[in-house]
Design brief:
With about 525 residues, the chain is mainly beta. It is about 0% helix and about 45% strand. Among the domains are: about 160 residues, Immunoglobulin-like (Sandwich); about 150 residues, 6 Propeller (Neuraminidase).
């Protein structure tokens, strides 16, 4: 019968102090060694198979098949052991991928967590690599700022006791919320999240509800919104806030809305959400060829839409079409950037926007639009960066505005600054050379600490190849430098990226992104982690 055993008396309370060496067992010319790693992925509430640590047992040489008879685990790097509900062990054969973790029975019975745990199991080992996972689930009382560290310290095998080498001793996993999963509410895929915080402290996350499939416009897509009043711990049911229905006698899949952008008026509390609407254009996309065209005509040019809420995001106005008020007739497209804007000290609203000046692949631009009358009217600034599109703006300590842009030209971020609300722009010294990207949306956000210091935060998939390694970078010099030591890795797995940052309160920053574990992940990062090197 599979059962948990108490920790070995000589190891009790001391497992974290074991020297990290590759132990091994040997018999008749056969050796067995083992290594443990912890993947950097969010540990999500509701997941019964959280990937806590991966143990790879390597068998070298010929002889009778050895077997594992026990596994010792340590949780001594965990903030609160009570944050975990249960632990178990599963095998994925030779496959080291998290996706291979089975949903079925465990090799050892689920046991309550403790500082140290020893499990009895019976698992034969084949020649070469054998992959085992310690998996678990979060307890209801787990907190979003909890850090988890579960490691395997030793194996009992038929060829002797093996001390396991820890290849990631500094990794502590962070907790997260699966804000949106594929299939939620009958929606095929949720994409393009943006996060904002209202003056009341309410978190608002807007996103694409892609009803039939994951593809972009033109498709059956509405703009949805989630709302949290407790710092992101719980979220209200989804609201649909922009849905063009069967406008013009065409079905919903020919009236899609996508790419929400959001700006909160800090003086009035009004929340503005913008999106791009396509009517007709079956099989087209607004960013390629004639998916959008010069002029203003619905059905030819993609439309710039807006809704507003005056009650902290509870209810929303009917959509208003701003295309004729904002778009130059020669432009092929003007659309909101799917990010958050901000309110300047004088009450001016600043919202990032993007567009196409022509039909060519690199005839794209990024800039801002501003409002001095609380969103009644808007002025679109001069293009800040050409050959780029999705962008986010942030105010620097001298009052100037920095625009950080997804580049269509290379796999570095474009960066420009303005001191006159976008009438003129200057390339920043870091533009096209400093912040790497895999061609994906990114997030730029300024925050003020309790002691008055200002930090500039930047989030994106930190890679030039794939949308993996979702990270937050920190600059304390207005974006002149972004030290690698200040980069916080949130999710090493492959996702779709599209992060969006927003302060929760002076002690925490929230982020949503399309991660490796869910369509939209929400995490809360203590500002203390942003100040110190991780």
């Amino acid at each position: 019968m599979i059962r948990p055993l108490p920790p070995h008396p000589l190891l009790h309370g001391l497992l974290a102090l074991v020297s990290i060496v590759v132990g091994g067992g040997a018999v008749a010319g056969q050796t067995v060694t083992a290594t443990v790693t912890r993947p950097v992925v969010p540990l999500l509430f509701g997941d019964e198979r959280l990937p806590l640590c991966r143990v790879v047992v390597h068998v070298e040489g010929e002889g009778p098949s050895p077997r594992i008879e026990g596994m010792s685990l340590s949780l001594l790097g965990t903030d609160r052991i009570a944050a975990l509900a249960a632990l178990a062990v599963v095998t994925t054969g030779r496959d080291e991928a998290i996706a291979a973790i089975p949903a079925g029975a465990s090799l050892a019975a689920d046991v309550p967590p403790a500082g140290t745990v020893t499990l009895v199991l019976e698992a034969p080992l084949a020649a070469g690599d054998n992959v085992f996972w310690c998996v678990g689930s979060l307890a209801p009382q787990a907190d979003l700022v909890d850090r988890i560290a579960v490691t395997c310290t030793a194996l009992e095998t038929s060829v002797g006791r093996i001390v396991v080498a820890d290849a990631s001793p500094d990794v502590r996993q962070r907790v997260g919320i699966a804000l949106r999963k594929q299939g939620d509410d009958g929606v095929h895929t949720t994409r393009i999240p943006v996060l904002a915080t209202t003056p009341a402290g309410t978190l608002l996350a807007a996103y694409d509800l892609r009803h039939r499939e994951a593809r972009d416009l033109q498709e059956d897509i509405d703009i949805g919104l989630s709302r949290s009043t407790d710092g992101g711990r719980t979220w209200e049911p989804v609201r649909t806030i922009i849905d063009m229905g069967d406008f013009g006698g065409l079905s919903s899949e020919l009236n899609g809305c996508s790419d929400p952008g959001i700006v909160v008026d800090e003086r009035t509390g009004t929340v503005h959400v913008f999106a791009v609407w396509m009517h007709g254009k079956q099989g087209k996309h607004q960013w390629t060829d004639d998916g959008s065209e010069p002029g203003f005509e619905i059905g030819k040019a993609a439309q710039f839409m807006a809704v507003r809420s005056d009650d902290d995001g509870r209810t929303w106005s009917a959509p208003v079409n701003l295309t004729r008020a904002l778009k130059e007739p020669s432009w092929w497209l003007l659309a909101p950037a799917p990010q958050q804007g901000f309110t300047r000290a004088d009450g001016t609203l600043v919202m990032p926007v993007q567009g196409r000046s022509g039909g060519g692949r690199l005839e794209t631009f990024a800039t801002i639009m501003t409002s001095i009358d609380h969103g009644l009217t808007w002025n679109v600034a001069a293009p800040a960066y050409t050959g780029g599109n999705e962008c986010q703006a942030a105010e620097l300590s001298d009052g100037s505005i920095m625009l950080n842009v997804r580049s269509d030209r290379q796999r570095f971020r474009g960066v420009a600054t303005t001191a006159d609300l976008g009438a003129t722009w200057s390339p920043h010294p870091t533009s096209d050379v400093t912040l790497i990207e895999p061609n994906c949306n990114g997030s730029l956000r300024g925050i003020t600490l309790r002691d008055g210091r200002r930090l500039l935060l930047f989030a994106n998939p930190s890679s030039q190849e794939r949308r993996s390694h979702q990270s937050i970078r920190v600059s304390d010099d207005d974006g002149r430098t972004w030290p690698e030591a200040r980069r916080i890795l949130l999710d090493e797995g492959l996702g779709r990226g599209y992060p969006s940052l927003s302060p929760i309160d002076p002690d925490r920053v929230g982020i949503v992104y399309e991660g490796s574990r869910a369509d939209v992940v929400f995490q809360s990062i203590p500002t203390a982690d942003l100040i110190a090197s991780p």
